[in-house]
Amino acid sequence: MRYITIALAKGRLAKQTLALLEQTGITCEEMKDKDTRKLIFVNEELKLKFFLSKTSDVPTYVEYGAADLGVVGSDTILEEGRKILDVLDLGLGKCDMCVAGPESAREKLNSGRPIRIASKYPNIAKNYFYNVKHQTVEIVKLNGSVELAPIVGLSDVIVDIVETGTTLKENGLVVLEKICPLSARVVVNEASLKLERERITKIIKDLKQTLNTENEY
Ligand code: PRP
Question: Is residue 174 in contact with ligand 1, taking CB distance under 6 Å?
Answer without folding.
Answer: no
